[in-house]
Design goal:
It contains four helices and three strands. Helix 2 packs antiparallel against helix 4. The N and C termini lie close together (8 Å).
Length: 122
């Protein structure tokens, strides 16, 4: 998995599943897209977990970070923007959608995701 795919997945989970996490570029000035931190928030907006110094090698994120990112997904709380959006649509309960998506992730998604995005398999 490369950084672009990770960014897409993080944005997708934030928008469609309510996962509250962000990827930040922490590279020194004038050297962009070299080192990243993944910051995970709970449903109260407090930082609950970080995956620091994600450094892609030859454009691919190393395996040790893939498993840490998958673990961080379990700790992520619900995104307040997602709650607002779903509440405005009046079609569903955002907490219930988040809970079901999280349960799906815990049941099957983590194993599939880490296997699918393992650079050794690519």
């Amino acid at each position: 998995m490369d950084v672009a795919k990770l960014r897409e997945w993080i944005k997708y989970t934030r928008d469609s599943e309510g996962v509250n996490w962000y990827l930040r570029d922490v590279t020194k000035t004038h050297e962009y897209n070299k080192i990243f931190n993944l910051i995970v928030y709970n449903d109260h907006g407090e930082v609950v977990h970080t995956v620091e110094y994600i450094e892609p090698r030859r454009g691919v994120i190393p395996t040790k970070f893939i498993s840490r990112i998958a673990d961080a997904r379990e700790l992520a709380g619900i995104n307040s923007g997602f709650v607002h959006q779903v509440s405005q649509d009046l079609k569903g309960n955002p907490q219930e959608i988040f809970r079901l998506k999280r349960q799906d992730w815990l049941d099957a998604g983590k194993t599939e995701w880490t296997g699918e995005h393992n650079p050794a398999k690519a």
